[in-house]
């Protein structure tokens, strides 16, 4: 009746067709698998399955991120981040205070096992004495106590019942006398006494009868307890079955670790007591602050093993005696959660680096420079791709620096947490480069560059991170940013050939079509390429607690202008600079905030409350337009042209003017500038002349850059709205109003005479570079944003 009133039509799936309700069925499977893992680790009997499923659901709702919203389900519903500090591992031993009257010499607490969370802000625990599940708040946890079956005299569960309904078999019955058992280090509590294990190798897998002091037999849950009373102050020898020395969760054998390393592996013996169920089901969400924390986490242990295995595979180093006459450089671990373009953690990455700041120039290294692609170069690459109508692909080299041959003799310490027990004083001699070395980027670039040149690619003259190859009428282009590579071709077969060339020498990670590169999100379709940073916008809004701010239409108020405000209230320099730095990187795809950010950046030395308010206004603007990006249409004109502009004495600090400029390839905005001029201009014409000269320098660089693509541009139009500045260029006269101008500014005259550029007059309302020189009112601002070829995309 309720559904009828609300217009809801109930539909039912057919019997035995779970695919008709796929979302719910897949969710059920996830919960069941998590519950199974938790019960296996806790060694609890099968009748606790409902509690395990309920706990798994409770944890996942507060831990797993929703890919669309980048939030946990709890945060989506309640609007706040969940607290997880009270989480405990399923089956954790604990004690609960007895609330009823007890005798003078009776125990004041009952032993229990944690089985879930209550809706009443309490824990659900199974009371071993009363054999019931209760809710309690005053709980004393015994997390270091082993939870294996038969670990104590009061264990009441039948180990065999654990495996009923599970489709796997015991793996411990084939252990032989010769099999090695990993012994935990001295600071970690072992799961089993070795002597007890040796004495019980031939024992059956049945749980032996144990003595108890209070527990009555439980027919449905396990074997009955002996009535013998055991003095709690006397040691109790319990025969332990082989299950004690065979962990159900996976262990890393010594063969997976570089060298005879044991110290790193043995510390994993504690992870089962803490949060094993969390790490078994999910990738670790937390980046460990140091190696000691990482060694306790199986996810990060695996990441470190993978890194060291790669060292062994590539022959990065050799273990040698410590030299007396050479400096040994320390090493350290870095940990990073790798995310996809939606911000979801997809991999835990551990990297061993060298503390390169301890290297000595001339001894440990010499030349260090390695070319790196500019962001303008990346945008030019995408603009050319849209013009030639091909898809851009992306790949990266795994552990790239490890492929670079070392020319110097460099020694490093053994990795923290992975010390060779037989040779603890030895060090490693590097045959290949390591991350952190001063010369590592240069040696890697030379290795990659030589490999591409040997296979027929031509390195750019201006941009040496650009490589291209022509095959008849087709061309393939490759842009390199350290170990990240984007590439595309008018013939997809050339892309396939390039991938094979790279995979022959390096281990590559093929990421398909370019979608996320240097924090730039890229969308490609048949109509064009969109560059945006929506994910980054949301991240910084969250970081600076501006997620719920009120949106505004412009990033900066046109009046009053921002000033030094010497008498204003001071604010935290660290917080202010952090906000400016975050916004600066956002200008890689958001020219609409360029001027506002640059103006606010002028006050980082002594920020005031008024300056902080101006920065927050930029965040409010981003809140309202997070999906604004650059649009590069395909199959359109590819003419190079530019706009320049300047204000006059706009800086209240020193009365210097601000240069603004932007450059296009057809309808594609590829570069823009907003910068305070170095000298004070004596007139508007002089300020505009200086701005036009700066714009000319950028145009000439773009012309040279495009020659590496095989494209020649001359007589590039530069539009300026000041007639006097144009006349100064065309008529190089010497008089009192221009004779003081610095000689470097007259570079524009030389370019004009050589016909590299041509100057054209444009009306002020058509000059889109006006947005880079001053704060504009809303109508003018929106007109300029449209002129910048920026669009807001939909999901």
From TrEMBL:
Domain of life from the UniProt record: Eukaryota
Q: Which CDD domains match?
A: RNase_HI_RT_Ty1 (cd09272)
Ranges for region Disordered: 193-220
The Integrase catalytic domain sits at: 1-81
InterPro entries from the UniProt entry: DNA/RNA_pol_sf, Integrase_cat-core, RNaseH-like_sf, RNaseH_sf, RVT_2, SH3_retrovirus
Q: Which Gene3D superfamilies match?
A: Ribonuclease H-like superfamily/Ribonuclease H
Which SUPFAM superfamilies does the protein's record reference?
A: DNA/RNA polymerases, Ribonuclease H-like
The identity of this protein, by name, is Integrase catalytic domain-containing protein
């Amino acid at each position: 009746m309720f559904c009828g009133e609300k217009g809801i039509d109930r539909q039912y799936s057919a019997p035995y067709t779970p695919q008709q309700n796929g979302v719910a069925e897949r969710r059920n499977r996830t919960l069941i698998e998590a519950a199974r893992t938790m019960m296996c680790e806790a060694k609890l009997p099968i009748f606790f399955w409902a509690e395990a499923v309920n706990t798994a659901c409770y944890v996942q709702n507060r831990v797993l991120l929703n890919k669309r919203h980048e939030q946990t389900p709890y945060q989506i519903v309640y609007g706040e981040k969940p607290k997880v500090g009270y989480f405990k591992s399923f089956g954790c031993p604990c004690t609960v205070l007895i609330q009823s009257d007890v005798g003078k010499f009776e125990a004041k607490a009952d032993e229990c096992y944690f089985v879930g969370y209550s809706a009443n802000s309490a824990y659900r625990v199974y009371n071993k004495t009363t054999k019931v599940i209760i809710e309690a708040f005053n709980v004393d946890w015994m997390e270091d106590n082993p939870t294996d079956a038969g670990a104590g005299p009061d264990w009441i569960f039948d180990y065999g019942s654990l495996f009923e309904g599970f489709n796997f078999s015991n793996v411990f019955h084939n252990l032989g006398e010769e099999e090695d058992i990993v012994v935990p280090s001295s600071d970690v509590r072992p799961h089993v006494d070795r002597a007890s294990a040796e004495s019980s190798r031939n024992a059956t897998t049945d749980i032996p009868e144990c003595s108890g002091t209070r527990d009555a037999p439980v027919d449905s849950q396990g074997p009955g307890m002996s009535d013998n009373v055991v003095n709690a102050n006397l040691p109790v020898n319990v025969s332990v079955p082989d299950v004690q020395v065979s962990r159900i969760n996976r262990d890393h054998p010594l063969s997976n670790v570089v060298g005879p390393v044991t110290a790193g592996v043995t510390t994993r013996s504690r992870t089962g007591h803490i949060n094993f169920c969390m790490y078994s089901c999910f990738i670790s969400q937390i980046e460990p602050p140091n190696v000691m924390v990482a060694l306790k986490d199986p996810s990060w242990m695996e990441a470190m093993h993978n890194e060291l295995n790669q060292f062994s595979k590539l022959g990065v180093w050799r273990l040698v005696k410590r030299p007396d006459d050479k400096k040994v450089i320390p090493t350290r671990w870095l940990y990073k959660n790798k995310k996809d373009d939606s911000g979801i953690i997809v991999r835990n990455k551990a990297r061993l680096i060298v503390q390169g700041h301890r290297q000595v120039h001339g001894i440990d290294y010499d030349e260090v420079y390695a070319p790196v692609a500019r962001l303008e170069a990346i945008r030019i690459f995408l603009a050319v791709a849209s013009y030639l109508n091909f898809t851009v692909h992306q790949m990266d080299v795994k552990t790239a620096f490890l492929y670079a041959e070392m020319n110097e003799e460099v020694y490093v310490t053994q990795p923290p947490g992975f010390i060779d027990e037989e040779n603890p004083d030895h060090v490693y001699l590097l045959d290949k480069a390591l991350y952190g070395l001063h010369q590592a980027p240069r040696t890697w670039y030379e290795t990659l560059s030589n490999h591409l040149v040997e296979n027929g690619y031509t390195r750019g003259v201006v941009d040496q991170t650009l490589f291209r190859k022509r095959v008849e009428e087709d061309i393939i282009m490759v842009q390199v940013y350290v170990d990240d590579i984007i590439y595309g071709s008018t013939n997809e077969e050339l892309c396939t050939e390039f991938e094979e060339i790279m995979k022959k020498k390096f281990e590559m990670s093929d990421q398909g079509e370019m979608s996320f590169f240097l924090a730039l999100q890229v969308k490609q379709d048949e109509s064009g390429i969109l560059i945006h940073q929506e994910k980054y916008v949301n991240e910084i809004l969250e970081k600076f607690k501006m997620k719920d701010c009120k949106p505004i239409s412009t990033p900066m108020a046109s009046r009053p202008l921002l000033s030094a405000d010497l008498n204003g209230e001071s604010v935290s320099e660290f917080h202010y600079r952090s906000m400016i730095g975050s916004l600066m990187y956002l200008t890689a795809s958001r020219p609409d905030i360029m001027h506002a950010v640059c103006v606010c950046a002028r006050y980082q030395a002594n920020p005031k409350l008024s300056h902080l308010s101006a920065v927050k206004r930029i965040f409010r603007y981003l809140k309202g337009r997070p999906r604004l990006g650059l649009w590069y249409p395909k199959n359109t004109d590819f003419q190079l042209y530019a706009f320049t502009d300047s204000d006059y004495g706009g800086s209240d600090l020193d009365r210097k003017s601000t240069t603004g400029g932007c450059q296009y390839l057809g309808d594609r905005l590829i570069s823009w500038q907003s910068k305070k001029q170095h000298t004070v201009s004596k007139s508007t014409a002089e300020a505009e002349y200086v701005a036009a000269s700066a714009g000319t320098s950028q145009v000439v660089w773009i012309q040279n850059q495009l020659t590496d693509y095989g494209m020649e541009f001359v007589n590039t139009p530069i539009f300026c709205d000041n007639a006097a500045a144009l006349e100064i260029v065309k008529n190089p006269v010497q008089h009192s109003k221009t004779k003081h101008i610095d000689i470097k500014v007259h570079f524009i005259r030389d370019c004009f005479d050589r016909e590299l550029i041509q100057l054209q007059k444009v009306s002020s309302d058509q000059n889109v570079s006006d947005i880079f020189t001053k704060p504009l009112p809303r109508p003018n601002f929106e007109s300029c944003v449209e002129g910048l070829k920026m669009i807001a995309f939909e999901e």
